[in-house]
Design goal:
10 strands; alpha/beta; Rossmann fold; 10-stranded mixed β-sheet; elongated; Na+/H+ antiporter like fold
């Protein structure tokens, strides 16, 4: 019972540390796995054991670590299965030669440099219990690995999968992983073998294992896939069969002498790659693996990482040498090979930076090496620090070599020539049709250029963030944009869909609006008014940054919106609301009422000029002007909005309590009390005045 209590406490502490540091790393643009790796090291003797040895001994007594180790090993088996499951031969489609040449160069160069480095490190950091051939082969294999899951995640979050460099990189990483793990399996077999006879038995057993998997197990898995397709879902029995196959495959490779993790990885690569089947299995396993089990592996690795072992300047120089060789071999070899196969220097440099990502995969290999006794604890620490450093440097180096602005330009495209361009960001599928009808009504005469944009925030629990094998650019937003596109087709409105992953929704909407030359950004609101500010969060960012008119629709009543109210007191945002209301007034049967709210005069000399002083013909025949004197303009607008209107179009200004703010709902009484649909308009100050605005300016 004491060991169980200790284990439960350990898991709780590990999960809190991993989630906290992972979230911190996401905020500074680093992959979450960097924070989880750092959390593992921080909980070990390098930080917690050094700063609070009593607390460390209480949380992680030596006799309790066996439970943590067992759970972490189970997590690694599941993780390696998921890595193999994500690998898809379709990744090589159309780019086989470039991917094969570059990936093998990114294996050969670091393998050669790692083996050469072993000549220097072996007499300094190893002993006679480890043969030099095994040591050199392990160093070469450890230098050659790329963290496929972390790499795919970075490519997805930065929207590089749909670029040439991203497509080649993900294909190279897939080939890389298979090659590196085959090399590692051979190294493990050599280390574990006891003489030539044992080596032959291991090689023979491995050949039998591969033959059984390809000739016997794979056909059974295809039948399981067919069963899934016939049922339309992954049943518990089918999922149990997959887990049974995973356990038996891992047991078989451990039994023949090439490590259980290789069996889990190989089964993943052998699985049928029908996307629905793969996705359902991944979804069942990923959250448990990534959120619960892998942080335990990081913690167990951190408990074995004692940075204090590098206690001499010469050892720190050795650590820097390990890092330098790792970067030169992986990044340099990949970049030169990519350049030789036709990529530009910028693209080749970006590919080299990405392939240098090692992350969790490196820790897995190092753990195997430490368990087998191939590397010493001091070298293990150096290699762990190298894995962490190469993963941390990926994001800033990639931004320097291949900036976000170039990625956006390549994935989103440049502005199109059109009389009027509307960008419609869509968060929820249900909001799409209403936004489409509003965009259509707001467009001037002629056929507007309409872009429907869906941005998906990266899900921290996904290994890869998206399916790298997806060929369609807009597959990511197919579900969210589906209703809007269906409504557009029914109404004959041409729409161009855009979809990608976004770490900063407000910034990416603004950048897309700029690249497409948008005249109007039309957004929807779908959350309860009382729970969050209408003009906060991403809406606030878009209104603050975008050099275009921005409108936010609260669709409480369905289209068509025939009876339109425009509360007005003056100012750029109210005039922008007038401009959009003019367009809505062109609809057949539409009428626009301008509610001009003026403050009661304080004296006979106070000026009262405004819309009420203009000629009615300045607004057109479908516009009715109504003037009221009220101290409380918001109350006047709310009262008028309750007497038979479909839509209220209003400027985002302090007068109406709708000034954009990050955290505020107390000023949004109009948005809360208005019973009809509401269109809140934020003006682009750089846009030229319309005739109505000019008339108002002249009157004022």
């Amino acid at each position: 019972m004491h060991l169980l209590l200790t284990l439960l406490l350990q898991i709780a502490v590990v999960l809190v540390a991993a989630r906290a540091l992972g979230a911190l790393c996401r905020r500074i643009g680093q992959p979450q796995v960097v924070g989880e790796m750092a959390a593992g090291i921080a909980l070990g003797p390098s930080l917690l054991g050094w700063a609070a040895p009593g607390v460390s001994a209480l949380l992680f007594p030596a006799e309790s670590l066996i439970g943590l180790n067992v759970l972490s090993q189970i997590g690694l088996v599941l993780f390696m299965f998921l890595v193999g499951l994500e690998l898809d031969p379709r990744l090589l489609r159309g780019r086989g030669e470039t991917a094969l040449v570059t990936s093998h160069a990114s294996i050969v160069a670091p393998f050669f440099l790692g083996s050469a480095l072993a000549l220097y490190l072996y007499p300094r950091l190893s002993d006679a219990s480890v043969g030099f051939p095994e040591f050199a082969l392990f160093m070469g294999a450890a230098m050659s690995v790329t963290a496929f899951p972390v790499l795919a995640r970075i490519l997805t979050e930065r929207n590089l999968l749909r670029t040439k460099v991203g497509a080649v990189t993900i294909a190279c990483a897939a080939v890389d992983d298979v090659t590196a793990w085959c090399l590692l399996a051979g190294v493990v077999a050599l280390v574990r073998a006891e003489g030539a006879g044992s080596v032959l038995l291991t090689l023979g057993g491995s050949a039998v294992y591969v033959a059984v998997m390809v000739l016997a197990v794979r056909p059974v898995l295809r039948k399981l896939e067919a069963y899934y397709e016939s049922r339309g879902q992954l049943t518990q029995d089918a999922f149990a069969a997959v887990l049974l196959a995973l356990l038996l495959s891992a047991w078989a490779t451990e039994y023949v002498g090439i490590h259980a993790l290789f069996g889990a990885f190989f089964l993943g690569t052998t699985m049928p790659k029908e996307r629905g089947f793969v996705r359902e299995i991944s979804e069942r396993l990923e959250w448990l693996t990534v959120v619960f089990l892998l942080p335990l592996f990081f913690a167990y690795t951190g408990l074995r990482t004692q940075v204090g072992l590098i206690d001499e300047p010469a050892l720190w120089l050795d650590a820097l040498l390990v890092l330098g060789v790792a970067v030169a071999g992986k990044s340099g070899g990949s970049a030169l090979a990519a350049r030789a196969t036709g990529l530009s220097w910028r693209e080749a440099g970006a590919l080299g930076v990405l392939m240098n990502t090692r992350g969790l995969m490196e820790l897995v290999i190092l753990t195997i090496g430490l368990d087998l006794g191939v590397i010493s604890p001091a070298l293990f620490v150096m290699m762990v620090l190298m894995a962490l450093a190469t993963t941390v440097m990926t994001t800033p180096l990639l931004e320097a070599v291949y900036p976000t602005r170039l990625i956006r330009r390549e994935t989103v495209g440049e502005a199109d020539e059109a009389a009027f361009t509307v960008l419609v960001p869509v968060a929820l599928p249900s909001s799409g049709p209403a936004l489409l009808r509003m965009a259509k009504a707001l467009a001037p005469e002629g056929r507007p250029r309409l872009y429907a944009l869906h941005l998906q925030r990266p899900d921290g629990a996904r290994l890869t963030g998206a399916d790298p094998a997806d060929d369609a650019d807009d597959a990511l937003g197919a579900e969210a944009l589906g209703p809007l596109l269906a409504a557009a087709e029914a109404e004959g409105v041409p729409v161009r869909p855009l979809a990608f992953v976004s770490r900063d929704v407000g910034e990416d909407i603004t950048a897309t609006a700029h690249l497409k030359g948008a005249d109007l950004v039309l957004m929807g609101w779908h959350k309860p008014i009382l729970s969050q500010s209408v003009l906060g969060g991403a809406v606030y960012d878009v209104m603050r940054r975008t050099r275009a008119d921005v409108a936010v629709l609260l669709a409480r009543r369905p289209a068509p919106w025939r009876r339109i109210l425009v509360p007005y007191t003056g100012g750029a945002h109210d005039r922008a609301a007038l401009r959009l209301a003019e367009r809505l007034g062109r609809q057949p049967g539409a009428t626009v009422t301008i509610l001009h709210v003026v403050r009661p005069a304080r004296g006979p000399d106070e000026p009262r000029l405004g819309l009420s002083d203009e000629a009615p013909e300045a607004f057109g025949p479908a516009v009715r002007l109504k003037v009221v004197e009220r101290e409380d303009a918001i109350e006047a607008a709310v009262e008028e909005g309750r007497v038979g209107y479909d839509l209220v179009v209003i400027g985002a200004s302090e007068t109406w309590g709708l000034e954009p703010a990050l955290f505020s709902t107390r000023h949004e009484r109009l948005a809360q009390a208005c019973p009809v649909s509401l269109l809140i308009v934020r003006a682009d100050p750089s846009r030229a005045s319309t005739p109505v605005e000019a008339a108002h300016a002249a009157a004022a």
